[in-house]
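Why do we care about 3D structure at all? Because function follows from shape, and shape follows, mostly, from sequence. That is the central idea of this module. The next example makes it concrete: a single protein chain, its amino acid sequence, and then its structure expressed as tokens.
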Amino acid sequence: MRDALVAAAFQLFLERGYEQTTVDDIVELAGVGRRSFFRYFPSKEDVVFPDHERCLADMTAFLARSGPEHEPVGRVCDAARLVLGMYAENPAFSVQRYRLTKKVPGLRAYELGVVWRYERALAEYLRGRFAGRPDGILRADVIAAAVVAAHNNALRSWLRSDGQDDATATVDHALGYVRSAFGAPPADGRDGAPEDVVVVVSRRGAPLWRVVQEIETTLARD
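And the structure:
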């Protein structure tokens, strides 16, 4: 019934336009009552995004299963790929929804609210991983925003191609920018502090004890 309601709604949106279609029109075409519609969808806007609640729940569960062995930036990038998978399950529907959302300001605003919830889920996970570090909350929120921005840029590019491009490759390329920009934090937790590099020039053939002595002398001066 849920799928029938979505199919009926989009058929009417295409024929009449979103604003001109009412919930009564949708249930009449689907052959069900209003109570059945609101059992599945709180509003007409929700029928346009029928899969986001499930995807958000899947993402939250995925992040909750994370352990200390998971590098946090890579983990949130993998979580974002769950959203891509949702869109790629039905490219024709995803493209149709993208076109509809572009035309209706109210749907664009609704979609921004959905995106914000994804971003918050990523940020909450990262805040937990970066707790106690300098600028941990700031780092978490910036990375979460960057992941969402990169993912959405690639997703829109794929949708503009009518779902013909390689969605996985496009999103992987975009998320690669996030990985290269933030990457894995240093093992000592210094979060971006530059490593000490010592260069020692020694004579060819110098005994090893002399080379070690020169390194120790240089480190003592620093």
